[in-house]
Amino acid sequence: xxxxxxxxxNPDVAVSMCAPGKAPVAEKIAQITGKAAGKVDPRSPGxxxxxxxxxxxxxxxxxxxxxxxxxVLAAGGDKSCEYGCLGYATCMRACPSTPSx
Length: 101
Description:
This protein is mainly alpha-helical.
């Protein structure tokens, strides 16, 4: 959610950082915002691919609502990489254009 707000509210934030949505989503966001799509980097900023991916080390066992926003409210999320995918599919439910996997 924070990234989406930054893309809309800050002209300097690139639309190419939505790793789950890949290039098709970046292109649609670019059309909506009037920004250049650019090349999508599948890695999360500030983390290695392993830290940001499904094999990211957990900080704690999260047993709350299976929603990324809810998980982030619990101490910043349950993964060691604060920029990585938490895996609760909130982006896919919010954006029907986000391809799965």
